[in-house]
Amino acid sequence: MALRISAAVERWPVAGQFIISRGAKTYVDVLVVAVSDGTHVGLGEGTAIYYNGETAESCLAEVEAVLPQLEPLGANAARDAVQLLLPPGAARNALDCALWDVSAKAAEVPLWRFAGLTAAPAPLVTAFTISLGEPAVMEANAAKATAKGYSVLKLKLTGEGDFARVAAVRAGAPEARLIVDANESWAHLDIAAEAALLATLGVEMIEQPVPAGQDSMLAGISCALPVIADESCHSAADVARLAPYYDGINIKLDKAGGLTEALKLAEAAEAAGMKIMVGCMLSTSLGIAPAYLAAQGANWVDLDGPALLAEDRPDGFVFASGMVSE
User: Fold this and answer.
1) What are the catalytic residues (predicted)?
2) From 25, 105, 154, 156, the catalytic residue
């Protein structure tokens, strides 16, 4: 049966500000795609990969441009076609996930089963992001997060004064597990020395220390902590290139272009012996629903996007005691 596909941009306010080395956000614009087969409606959400030049509006235009090729198809065929019609990114993510959703509903099985998981998804320990700020501010925010029950904190760093920031967070959250996201900002640093210092504070992982495309800067570095590729890793085809330099990858559906590619990425990483983190952009619970499936069994889970918003969709994921659950 032919499909009817619609798409729209929605704006969701952030709780306070979300600050990283590239700037601050007070809201996030998400692309929502709805796919109808005449009986069932599937939904998907994507958040533009802004550092790749995407905007919510450009993603909307991408979706609208391929509707003539997709709407005459069935949902499963359309999901195959969209892998070829669109590159990895938020537009393909929203479409791909909506197509998975409508197919599972038509098959009258839960999405996890339709996607090939062997068991229903279980609640997960998720990291909570501590935005970039002055050490005292990050310390206070870390204390607030642990008071809410979060046991894993992800710190946004900038390549300047990072040890002081991490030390302050450690003081504010002495029992928390800490992971850090350098957001490509450590190219000018002695990465091995920086990692050794952070290891003394109990940090357990570093995300994307060098600029994407300059991954060979990590060649020959003996690092005290696992180093995870984020901005450098989009699709399964990237894994072989990154394996010599990184210990693992961060899978985000917006980067990968949907659940289809995310599952392939996880399979490729496991085959390469790499660790897996599953993360997200700022998003509502609709955006992390398929990522929640991909995150089952991951080494690190960072699906706090909805928890960083001023409000979420009705009947969204529950964030309690440091866990994310349906």
Assistant:
1) 156, 252
2) 156
